[in-house]
Amino acid sequence: MDLVLQPHFHDPATPSPYGHVAADAFYAELLAAHEGLDASASALLDARLVLLLANHVGDLGVLRQALSLAREAA
């Protein structure tokens, strides 16, 4: 399996031919999850989210690709 780099968001509850609708909804929910948190708690939320999603992906090769791309951007 390769890392998906094209927009891949979808929401069965509100189908749309445009993936950006679900992507925008996720971004808004991510910001809301951080509301009221200090920097430390916000970093913990991000770390926990990364680990939960990494577990969901599960494929170490895909996770290595994601780490490499993320590191390049840092």
Summary keywords:
single chain; 74 residues; mainly alpha; 3 helices
Broad shape: globular
Any idea how many domains? 1
Helix percentage range: 55-70%
Proportion of strand residues? under 5%
- Secondary-structure element order, N to C: HHH
Structural class: mainly alpha
* Main sheet makeup: none
Treating each run of at least 4 consecutive H or I residues as one helix, how many helices? 3
Give an overview in words.
This protein has 74 residues and is mostly helical. It has one domain (19-73). It contains 3 helices and no strands. The protein has helices at 19-34, 39-57, 60-73. It starts with 18 loop residues before the first helix and ends with a helix.
Q: What is the topological layout?
A:
Blueprint: H1 19-34, H2 39-57, H3 60-73
